[in-house]
Amino acid sequence: MNKFQSRPLSDRVLREIFPRVIADLILVHLSALASLAAALLWQMSESRPLVSPDSVAELRSLYLTTFVPLSVIFPVVFLASGFYTRNRSYASRYKLFTLARGATAASLAFILAAFLMARAGTLPRSAAVTFILMVNATTIGARLMKQWFHSAGGADPEKNPNSVQSGIPQPDKPVLVVGGGGYIGSILCRKLLAQGRKVRLLDSFVYGDSAVRELFGHPNFELQIGDCRNIQSVVSAMNGASAVVHLAAIVGDPACEQDKSAALEINYAATRMMTEIAKGYGVERFLFASSCSVYGETEEIVDEQSEVGPISLYAQTKVDSEQALLRARTDRFHPTILRLATVFGNSYRPRFDLVVNLLTAKSLREGVITIYNGEQWRPFIHVSDVAEGFLTALDAPLSVVSGEVYNLGDSRLNYTLTQVADTIQRLVPGTRVEHIENPDRRNYRVCFDKIRCELGFECKTHLEAGVRDLQAALESKRISDYTDPLFHNQRFLKAAGRLTSKEETDTQVMAAFAAVLNNQQEPDWTPEKVRV
Fold it and tell me: What is the spatial distance between Cα 414 and Cα 380, in angstroms, rounded to a whole number?
């Protein structure tokens, strides 16, 4: 098995989280002292012109014997509430709500603990209310002040163009979508264009161009037909791009097993080549479509810090590409890895080699679906939400997503295969479900808290809605024959034959970059050395 982590956790704790915990503790202690001082002033205005020494001593004792030992509650609750995720810069209502909820919860937890520990020495009611308000004001206010300082100072992209904050894709430069003519890319290109961005598409159109043909006349759409293994095509496409979204791959275990050589070239070696060319052209942001299948078979709920265990060639090429990209990270090249859950739903280039789509089609056309090892868990995500996830990562500050790995999905969409069958059976009455056990025991449930907490991403389309949309497309004959090889990667590639490189130079280049997998040497390919 390969051990993979986006960045050593101990390093991040020491360099990033620990100073922020200390800063929050200082703010909390200042809030406590201010609240106790307010309580003294309240006593003065309410009953006594002077505060007795006994009152001062009582509040001092309350601070030293109760608050100081219990103040550890605050960083624990703050951590659980997502205060110390990497995203410190998005000032959305979601972020403010998270901060207010965490600050209030920590304050109430402290007050409860103080009451249970020393009933006679709890905070006065006036001090307790003031304390909750002060903790909210200081923790939220400090973050807003820091954000204002960064936006007004050295982190301003116009004042510091080399800062990682300057990595938001520039509207006058195109976003390069490699492999954008397929299942996911055809939706992503449309969403990018709808945002007013320029889009450059590099695709060899192995499966045809019908999914994006209607975009060809769009003023912000630029088409470049070419193989991602061809260095001249990649150099030409990369020139002037503001960011790269890398979707090109032979997708799925059966398709990769059918042509292992092409899978290694397209899924790994081409990624290595694109990485070097992007760095040569100064393209800072590089988004890579990986897969949750890198986790292999496990009974545990996995997250980005979990050990990977690929059990297929497809998953192995994704792991190797992830590691190559993260090794290439510099202060001017910022890869982001998105590990996709199992995708489902209709698209401009439909696929029926995906479990939800295939079962939905079979239930409508044949009235019976077969479930293998129904108690296995899988994470799911609608294809439209995949595109939204890439947009979210594309818009996030580079200081947040640089060198990071995100599971792309939603914890609410973890289902067993039996639950998927039950949903389809409910939506397509009369469907018969057959259960069969076989040796394929791939089982994994995925945690998606990181992308939700750091980027605010949540899926919008749930399983039932996606099935209903597919059902409507099939029943209306918009998709006439789901068994057409065009809708099945492995079947189509089997009929098309081997995806060999058209030029001998491409084969040599891919061999050079594939060799990096074994010897870790960096091949010397730069844009200046390629004649376009």
Answer: 6
